[in-house]
Amino acid sequence: MSSFLLRRLSSLILTLAVTSLAIFLVMEVLPGDPAAIMLGLEARPDTLAALRTELGLDRGLFERYFSWVGGLLTGDFGVSYTYRVPVGQLIGERMVVTVPLALMAICVAAGIGVPLGVLAASARGKLTDQAATAFSQLGIAVPNFWIGLVLILVFALSLGWFPAGSFPGWSSSIPGALQALVLPAIALGLPQAAILTRVTRSSVLEVLTEDFIRTARAKGLSRRTVLRRHALRNALIPVITILGLQLATLIGGTILIENVFALAGLGRLIYQAMTQRDLIVVESVAMLMAALVITVNFLVDLAYGWLDPRLRAGR
């Protein structure tokens, strides 16, 4: 197990290093001068030069890269060009919206997708299976922002059960904050639930054809017991893979939903920073999201090792 963990840690560190370099270089080749955007087109050259020096934009490319990476390692994300406050403060204020939203969305996806996929597999060819397949196809085809707009029209404007947008904050009212995240979490989670339904159904059906399943049935175990004790655990490996990728996608892909529901999260922050050419914010938020994706994949690998002992042995 230790060698398995060491291999995964080495891969994690190398991936993070390559990702940080790629993000920095991509952002640096984008057109536009942050100092010129902040001061306007009529700014004097000496004023532009002074602001570029203040922001550190006059330093060499790799000097700025190593300074940025060193700051990330010590928790210093720099100071926003636009807001003139520490980037870490901006990220902290927005993460309290995005992370709970992503976790609620993945709970919606798992709570609907996994049971529905297992149910469809156990009733293959029947009406339940056909209904689950139709839900899966519809959920994959419909974009999440459209689902969000429909939810706003029905449950916010017509019924008035939930707010149409904005986030009141956790300090004002925890129930109110959770209520504000319900509709965006459903809008984010339903398409992922559709994908998870299809993956779970296929995985369970594949496991049900294995010899050990027939052996368990031959011993007199009921179909439900075989499904719960033997088939489900072996079918979980691809399901966990999809769940890990979905969680990473939800954390990094909330830009549209956060704009639809006017939520001040990481997705909206990176959108605003890109329009304002606030490079340090874009780079830091993008790196944070990438690190979350890579870390989630690392945890999925560890879950693989727990579910399948052959992986721990390197076979």
From TrEMBL:
It is found in: Cell membrane. It comes from Lacibacterium aquatile. Residues 95-300 form the ABC transmembrane type-1 domain. This is ABC transporter permease. Keywords: Cell membrane, Membrane, Transmembrane, Transmembrane helix, Transport. It is a multi-pass membrane protein. Pfam families: BPD_transp_1, BPD_transp_1_N. The lineage of its organism: Bacteria, Pseudomonadati, Pseudomonadota, Alphaproteobacteria, Rhodospirillales. Belongs to the binding-protein-dependent transport system permease family. Gene3D superfamilies: MetI-like. The chain crosses the membrane at residues 12-30, 95-120, 140-162, 174-195, 235-264, 285-307.
